[in-house]
Amino acid sequence: MKLLLKILLLIIIAQTSHVYSQNSVARDWNDELLEAIRNDFARPTIHSRNLFHSSVLMYDAWAIFDTNAETVFLGKTFGGYTTNFNGIAAPSNTNDAIHEIISYAMYRLLNHRFANSPGATNSLANFTTLFESYGYDVNFISVDYSTNSYAALGNYLAQEMIAFGLQDGSNETNDYESEFYSPTNDPLILELYEDNDLTDPNRWQPLAFDIFIDQSGNVFPADTPDFLGPEWGQVTPFSLKASDLQILNNGFDSYVYNDPGAPAYIQNSTADGIDDPYKWHFALVISWSAHLDPANNTMIDISPSSIGNVDFSDFPTTFEEYKTFYDFTNGGDIGAGHTLNPVTNMPYTPQMVKRADYARVLAEFWADGPDSETPPGHWFTLMNYVSDHPQTVKQFGGEGPILSDLEWDIKSYLALGGAMHDSAVDTWGIKGYYDYLRPISAIRYMASKGQSTDPGLASFDPHGLPLIAGLIELIETGDPLAGANGENVGKIKVMSWKGPDFIADPDTDIAGVDWILGTHWWPYQRPTFVTPPFAGYLSGHSTFSRAASETLTLITGSKFFPGGMGTFDVIQNDFLVFEEGPSESFVLQWATYQDASDQTSLSRIWGGIHPPIDDIRGRIIGEKIGKDSFELAEQYFSGNLSVNDEELNDNTIVYPIPVDNLLHIKTPYLEDIQLQLISLTGKLITSEIKSNHNGLIDLQINNLASGIYILKAYSENNTILFQKKIVK
User: Which CATH architecture has domain 168-639?
Assistant: First the structure.
């Protein structure tokens, strides 16, 4: 019933959004894209790419008419792909021209990208409804913009982005399938509760379902889903730097940016127990699972006065620091909250809530539930929430002129889209290379082995779970779990959420927490989903969220949500989907974007999806990506793409200036070089690959109009070598 109500609400919103919309055209199309993502398979890699590519199209449609901005794709070579652009006449109404280019470009791109979606019937119809509501013609398919047709230019932009996407390393042609990866471990058959005898307890394990339904509520065509995107690191990024890239091999070539190093691997010592970092990380997941029972009346303050405000410098790097950063027993981290709301200059009001309700809601809210727009899309909804807030002042970076809704949306989407896309490229390259297992595999594996604390007790094994009184114990004779014939005596039991076997009706039932066999442990997820079908390390949620929070901080010029607090209302017994709850209404609250990001990371531990080792290193990489994406986007906005001194290379000389018809370039770069001459409006004048002859390259530029131009040089791997200002 709850799922049906959510679906009906989304249908109502979709049906009314075009009638009452006062949004920019960029926002309208972003809303349509987010809705299409909710109705597609839940594939965060693919949808972060869709969000980024659509943001680029919308930005370029705006940038070609801006006197300062530089395009990303149109008239440029991006990721080795050149999109020629011969310019177009200045419009009598710039906003109308931008509206038309964006609409035709987005309509064509989204129809292509979602043609095979399980929700294609509704999504394609929604695209057409929006497109035709503007008065545009779906039958106009020309790409010949030489007639100064803005519709044709939109079609052309989409055509080129589609072609680019077919060669950007994503393997879109073959529905993004992996070409080289194969799992080391056999699938875990979830319903049989057999001993989980992994070939390698450090590697990812597929899960075998009776039926698999992804986070978007789509029945998956296979009952044992494949690893999603293990080779995604080779997809063309936005701001990721070639200097941060390594090509590593763990059975196939993995493109790994910002290599975080290996996760915690299991030790083979004779009695390390909880002192084994691997066991500590996964035992913490068990400990937090014990919090998920609303019958437990433990109350916590979930307001910004008590949680959040974790500094980047607080992130742990050593095992001892991890044990201090996370509260193993009670949950949460070292965040002590904020003293005052900087907008109201008043203390935040405490909000006491059952820890069980808070943890359960977090696990579902940040997983995005059964109507998921996936984590990158979720952060776009938060970006739109911020844009709509009455206290938001649309000064980009928190300073300068107040922007129109269109310019604000266009710029925000490019910066955020680049960050989300790069987070996927970076994180999934790491996932594919390190191929690390999930808690359900690790916990059931260690429980199958026994205990690793005391060689003098039953069921000792170096790979067993550590014994912790009240949390992880041996089953003794007379224990309710001993079995009718004592068959479970000596096995491992854990105090955890009991799992889906104890939920017959999700509208009324609560599984609760109790002692269960360790081999029966479940994450706090739906039984038809359980765990995302890809390796755990690093956490995509942690990377996406930290990158997004950093980007939103830079976009708005403040680390705080508008008014000093972001909120989301949670209604009693009307939010959780796979069991009843929460037991009371409350409000999720975040003072800062980073507080929201950190809450996302903790939610994945309470949800049984990630151990801490997956989390922190994702946050660290996400912070870097968010800053780099925003910085690069700003350089496009200003038309001042910076090149550091080393890349500029003072030894490169361009002459004569002013130039007539032949330009001489004296440079130490001896490789073949791609030279581009670009006007200040972003128009690509010429693009040629030239060979260096004894340190000298000549470029013929006949019939070039008088003016100022930018000469850019790229290496074979698309690294910029130098750029120079040219005067004609």
Answer: Orthogonal Bundle (1.10)
